[in-house]
Amino acid sequence: MIVLSGIFGFTAFAFWNLAISAVQDCVDDTRVGSATGITQGIATISGSVAPTVSGFVITNYGFDLALVLSVALPQLIYVFLALKATR
To answer: Among 46, 48, 66, 70, which Cα is nearest to 56's?
Structure first.
């Protein structure tokens, strides 16, 4: 189990490193530290707030709506914003 966790840890969770790299590539070299700090700050805040919001939605509206709001809706917003940014 430990070996399997190690394999998944190095392969399945590369999105965080990719997100930080993408942010650092999009800014000027003099602003890399600030951009990285803002990105990690937002991630820390969302990691603290998300369980509370998820618990509230699951308790009051059910698991199905919670999945839609936490998975499908953010993905649709991301795709829409990415498409708008490329035009």
So the answer is: 66
